[in-house]
Amino acid sequence: MKKVLAIILGGGAGTRLYPLTKLRAKPAVPLAGKYRLIDIPVSNCINSEIFKIYVLTQFNSASLNRHIARTYSFAGFTEGFVEVLAAQQTPENLSWFQGTADAVRQYLWLFEEWDVDEYLILSGDHLYRMDYRQFIQRHRETGADITLSVIPIDERRASDFGLMKINESGRVVDFSEKPKGEALKKMQVDTTVLGLNQEQAEQQPYIASMGIYVFKKDVLIKLLKEASERTDFGKEIIPDAASDYNVQAYLFNDYWEDIGTIEAFYNANLTLTQQPRPPFSFYDEQAPIYTRARYLPPSKLLDCHVTQSIIGEGCILKNCRIENSVLGVRSRIESGSIIQNSLVMGADMYQPFAERQSDCERRSIPLGIGANTIIRRAIIDKNTHIGCDVQIVNKDNVQEAERESQGFYIRSGIVVVLKNAVIPDGTII
Question: What pLDDT, on the 0 to 100 scale, is given for residue 95?
Answer without folding.
Answer: 65
